[in-house]
Amino acid sequence: MSTPVFSNTNASISSDFIMVNIHEQAQTPDQVTLNDTSQIIEMAEVNVNAPTEKTVSEASGKVVPKKRTNKANAVTNKPEDVLAVRRKQLEARIVALESMVESVETPPPTLMPREVSSSRPLRSAARDVWYWVRPVTNDCTVQDADCGTEIEADAMYQELLSFESLKHPASPYLRCIQCLKTMHKTHIWANRSGGLTGAIRNHLEKYHPASYYLKCQEEGMMTRLADGSGDVQPEFTRPGFMDRLVDWAVTTDQPLNVVESLEFCDFILYCGQGGIKDNNIPHRDKLATAAWAMYLLEKARIDKEMKNARGRVSLTSDLWSDSNLRSFMAVTAHYINECGDLKDHLISFRKIEGRHTGENVANALFSVLQESSIAKQVNCITLDNASNNNTLMEELATYLAPLGAEFHPERNRIRCFPHIMNLAVNDMLSSLSDAAAEYRAEMSQWDLPIDSKTESYLQALESQPVDVVRAAVHDCRRSGLRREGLHDIIIDGNRLGRFRRPDGGAYTIRPLQLLRDVPTRWSSTYNMIERYLELHPAIAKLALQIRNDARITVASHKQYEVLQDILSVLWVAHNAQQLLSAEKTPTLALAFPVYEAVIEHWEQLCGVIPELSHLISSGISKLQEYVTRTQDVPVHLLSMFVNPSLKLDWIRDNWTPPQAAAAEAAVRDERVDASYPSPHHCGGPSTTHVKLQQPFDSSAKSWAFATRNSRCYASVHQNYPRLTTAAAQKFARQLLAPGIHSNHNSTPATQPNTDARDQMLVDEEFARYMEDKTVSTSNGVF
User: Nearest-5° angle of CA 53, CA 54, CA 57?
Assistant: First the structure.
C-alpha cells in the first residue's frame, strides 16, 4: 500500500469519511479493481489546483446585491485559503481511504470472531418429557390388582424428582405415568436414542394435555405452551367469551369499535361454528363497560391483597414520555402476600399534568397510595437519580407524616442500580476525549517516554472512535438499500468464506444489522460497539464495494483495537446491571457486593489498559459517590443479613470497623413481631416462580474482550455472591413482617414489658443465627 504524499497531515484517523454509493447492480468485493492510491492523489491535486467556477453575477455581468453576513462567520474567498482548505480535505480523504482499504485487505490483528453455532438450542432439554415417564425393566402390562400400588409408587417417584436435573433415563423401557393414573392403561416405550422424546411429547399432548401444559406453565417452559396449549379450552360460556374478548382488546390495544366491524363479526361467527350467536358479540359501549368493570374488580382484588400483605409494600416509580411528549408516571408495587409468595403489580399508569417538579410528582404518587389504601404500609421506593426525586421524597414524607407512617426521604429510598451504572458509563464516555491527553501528561510528569505503538494507540483514542461507530451506524442504516447491501455481503461472505481471522482461517458472521445507542437506555452504547465490532469486516467490504456513490465510515485497525478495550470496560458495567435487573428474583442484597466488584475490576483494568485509566477513574468516582449516599439505607443491610451467602461477613470484610459495627447495631435494632401468623396454604399452583440461578455462565464472556493479546482478565461474575436460597427467603419474609422497624409498635399498650422481652429474644436469636447459621422458631420470635 502506498503512503500519503502529504507528510505534514494533521488529520486524525477518522477526521473525514469515505464517499460511497450504492448501485442497483453492484459488483462483488472480489470483482472491484482498486485505483492506485498515487493516481487518486494526482487526480485530487488536479481538482485542488483547478480554477474555481465563476459566480452567477460574474457570468451574467449583472450586479447582484450581496447578503449581509457576519464578519466573524464570513468564509474567506482568497484563492490561497480555498486551496489550503481543499488540500486539508484531500489529506483527510487519503487517510480515510487507506484505512478502508487496509480493513478490507487484512483483518484487524486483534480480531476475535464470535463463534456461531449451527446447532439449534434445545427448547426444554426434554425435562417436560422425562417427568411423565417412569423407568421400568420390562414391557409387561400392569395388572388391575396392582394398579393402586403402582399409582402410589408413581406419585412418590414424581415427588422425589428434581425437575431442573431431569435427564434421559437409562432403563430399557419407559412407562407413561398418566395413562395408568387416569385410564388404568399401560403405555410403554422402548428406550432408544432417536425420536423417543418427540413420540412421548406427542402422546402427552394428545392424551394428557391438561396435566402436561399445566406442568410446563408451572416450570416456566412457555416455549412448550406455544405449540399447542390453546387446543385445550373450557366449555364455551358468554361470560368467558366476554372476558377473553376484553383481554384481547386491551392487551393488543384494539379500538373499541372493532366489535362493530362486519368482517370481525363474521370471523367470530365462523370460528364459533354455531356455538356463538350474533347477539353474543357485544357492541363497543358494552365492551367499554366490561373493560372498566374488569379493571375495577382486578384493582379491588390487588388492593385487598396488598392490605393483607405479610409486611409493608415497596414501590418502583418512573416517568416516561410518549411520541406526543405527554408524560406518564408508572407505579409498581412489590410485596409478599398471605401465602408467602413474592408479588408485583403495576398499580398505576397516570398522566402527569404540568411540570415535572418533585412536588407535582409527589402529589400524583400520594394520590395513587390513597386510592389503593396503602399509604400507611409504604416501605421503600425505588427511583432513579434525577434531582426532582429528592424533592419528591421530601414532599411524600410530609404527606405521610400525619398518617403515622414511618417514612424517611433518604432511609426509605432505593436508588436505581442500572441508572447509577448508566451514569457512570456516561461519565466515562464523556471523559474519553481527555483520556489520551491525561495519559501523556502523566507520562511526562514521570519523565517516561512513549513508544511508537503506544503513540499510534493514543492517536486512535483521540480520534473519537465511539463517534466513528455512531457515524458508521448512521451511514449503514440510512437507507433500505444499504441495509440490504450489508445483509447480502454477510450472506455471500459466509457462503464463499470471505471473512478471515488474523491467522487466515475462515469464519462466519451472523446476518444482523447495526444498532443505535441512546444515552438513557442501559447498555445501549455497549450493544452498539459490540455489534459494530462483530460486523466490521462486512462494513469494510460494503464501503469498498459502493465507494464511489455514498459515505460509509470504516474504523482503522488501531481504532478497532481501542474500541475493543473500551468494550472491555463497558462489559463490566453491562453484566453488573444485567445481574441486578432480574424481574422475579430479589437482588437488593447484591447491590453493595456488585458495586465493589465493579470498582475492583475497573481498578484492575486501569493497570491492564493504562491509556484508559483516566476514563475508568471517572466511572469509579461516580460509583463511589452513590455508594456513599446509599450506605445508610437500612434495607440494604437487612437484605444482606438474611442472605446466607452474605450475612454480615461481607460487610466485616469490606467496610471499616466503625461502619461494620454500625451495620451490626442497625440489624440488632430491628424488631420482629412475635404474634405474626405463619402463611397459610393457598390452593393451586403459585403464579410466581422464583428461579434461583447463577448470575452468569462462564461462556457468556464476550468474544471481543480478550484484547491486545495480553489484556485478558478474570470475568466479573467469579466474584459475585450466590443468590438467596429458600431458607434465606423464608427468613426474609419473617424479618419483613409488620413491626420490623424499631419505632413501630404493634403490641398492645397493656404489656409494658413486651419491648424489653422482644429485645432480649431478638438478641438471643441474632447471636444464634450468627454462630451456627440457623434460624430457630421454638422461642416464638418467628
Answer: 150
